[in-house]
């Protein structure tokens, strides 16, 4: 039996009540202090993972009890110490490799320091997150009949670890690429790297996320913003938006008022076996985030080594983990948008709504408003 751990944390204070209902009775500032000083805890025991190769794995969710807001506000050393403590807790439970979830993979140097301070292998899961996000984008583009070689893609948060890898891999297939982030210098460095590798692809850079979205047929949102940053008024009819970020980058208003754009969550996969996670994180049975799945895949493969670390991901590792995922029975589980499954039929309906909106705009010359997009 292969063994792994995965570090999770609350996205907001209210999430604590999902595990501890009595927490609803405490004032928020009390809970924040409890989280800040509390030790890591075992959230659940994960059982039933079984590869078609016959290998089985079990694992544990371990809670690092800090919210993203706290991770950004507290001293970096204090946050890293909390993550290290959580990894040590996973090892004490029996894990031989541990995955860093959500903001625990973002803080500091994206897992490098943590890996140096613990005695088991560490991975951020970002390589498989990139692979599954791209699989979802290509699947959606096919259903929406968006020709990649003629399309414009915008990567929001392009200079982060996931953003860079997504941009570099999209550059192989996309007609035009827009990179958006806060640092113009880092954007230009990345653009030059992509242009040198990809040759013909046209790369633009901007620090204006709204402008990047307005021009894009495909938007990949992967910033570390605490609040939503993509609004419905910014999007073209027929746009495909892949939201990889946790917390979400895309406002729920997009799904509420734009029936002519396709929004889906990147990195949701089917896990092989009769899986029980012992904890409800809002997904259907036997599905998980790709970052979680990367840790499981490495465990099933017996690869107890630090795999994805740092901010400059290896495209070879992205391709390697995608191959190992297929070997062990992991697969992208369709597309999901704001806690609901998107069927092929619903995606085709979005495509038809986009066609109608474009035709109406062309025929009347009207400004496209939320009302006409319904």
Task: Give an overview in words.
Helices cover 40% and strands 21% of the residues. The protein has 374 residues and is of the alpha/beta class. The protein folds into 2 domains: 2-127 and 269-332, no CATH class; 129-267 and 336-373, Rossmann fold (3-Layer(aba) Sandwich), CATH 3.40.50. Helix 6 (126-143) packs across helix 7 (161-170). The longest helix is centred in the last third of the chain and has 21 residues, at 344-364. Residues 370-374 have low confidence and may be disordered.
Give the helix/strand layout.
Elements: E1 2-8, H1 16-19, H2 28-37, E2 41-50, E3 56-63, H3 68-73, H4 76-93, E4 97-100, H5 112-117, E5 121-123, H6 126-143, E6 152-156, H7 161-170, E7 176-180, H8 184-198, E8 202-206, H9 209-214, E9 218-221, E10 240-243, H10 253-257, E11 262-265, E12 268-270, E13 273-276, E14 287-289, H11 290-301, H12 315-327, E15 331-332, E16 335-337, E17 340-342, H13 344-364, H14 370-373
Parallel strand pairs: 1-3, 1-4, 4-5, 6-7, 6-9, 7-8, 9-10, 10-11
Antiparallel strand pairs: 2-3, 2-13, 12-14, 12-15, 16-17
Helix pairs in contact: 6-7, 6-11, 6-12
Features of the shown structure:
disordered C terminus, 2 domains, alpha/beta, 21% strand, Rossmann fold, 17 strands, 374 residues, 6-stranded parallel sheet
Structural class: alpha/beta
| Residue share in helix | 25-40%
Q: Radius of gyration over alpha carbons?
A: 21 Å
Mean model confidence by pLDDT: 90
The end-to-end span amounts to 52 Å
How can the largest sheet be summarized?
Answer: 6 strands, mixed
Shape: globular
Extended strand count: 17
Number of domains: 2
Low-confidence stretches: 370-374
């Amino acid at each position: 039996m292969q063994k792994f751990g995965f570090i999770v944390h609350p996205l907001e204070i209210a999430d604590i009540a999902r595990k501890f209902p009595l927490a609803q009775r405490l004032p928020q500032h009390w809970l924040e202090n409890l989280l800040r000083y509390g030790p890591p805890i075992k959230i659940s025991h994960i059982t039933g993972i079984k590869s078609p190769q016959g290998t089985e794995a079990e694992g544990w969710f371990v809670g690092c009890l800090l919210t993203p807001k706290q991770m950004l506000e507290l001293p970096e050393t204090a946050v890293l110490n909390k993550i290290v403590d959580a990894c040590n807790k996973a090892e004490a439970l029996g894990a031989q490799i541990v995955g860093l979830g959500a903001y625990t993979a973002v803080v500091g140097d994206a897992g490098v320091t943590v890996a140096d301070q613990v005695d088991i292998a560490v991975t951020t899961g970002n390589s498989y997150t990139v692979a599954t996000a791209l699989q979802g984008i290509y699947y959606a583009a096919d259903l929406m009949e968006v020709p990649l070689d003629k399309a414009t893609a915008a990567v929001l948060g392009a200079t982060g670890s996931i953003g860079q890898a997504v941009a570099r891999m999209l550059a192989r297939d996309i007609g035009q690429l827009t990179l958006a982030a806060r640092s113009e210098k880092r954007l230009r460095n990345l653009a030059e790297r992509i242009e040198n590798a990809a040759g013909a692809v046209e790369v633009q850079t901007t620090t204006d996320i709204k402008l990047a979205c307005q021009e894009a047929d495909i938007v990949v949102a992967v910033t570390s913003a605490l609040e939503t940053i993509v609004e419905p008024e910014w999007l073209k009819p027929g746009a495909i938006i892949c939201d990889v970020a946790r917390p979400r980058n895309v406002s729920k208003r997009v799904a509420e008022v734009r029936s002519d754009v396709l929004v889906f969550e990147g990195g949701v996969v089917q896990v092989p076996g009769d899986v029980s996670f012992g904890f409800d994180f809002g997904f259907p049975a036997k599905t998980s985030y790709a970052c979680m799945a990367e840790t499981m895949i490495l465990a099933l493969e017996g690869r107890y080594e630090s795999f994805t670390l740092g901010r400059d991901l290896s495209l070879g590792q992205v391709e390697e983990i995608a191959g190992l995922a297929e070997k062990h029975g992991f697969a992208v589980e369709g597309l999901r948008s704001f806690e609901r499954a998107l069927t092929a039929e619903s995606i085709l309906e979005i495509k038809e709504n986009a066609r109608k909106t474009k035709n109406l705009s062309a025929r009347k010359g009207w400004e496209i408003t939320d009302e006409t997009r319904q």
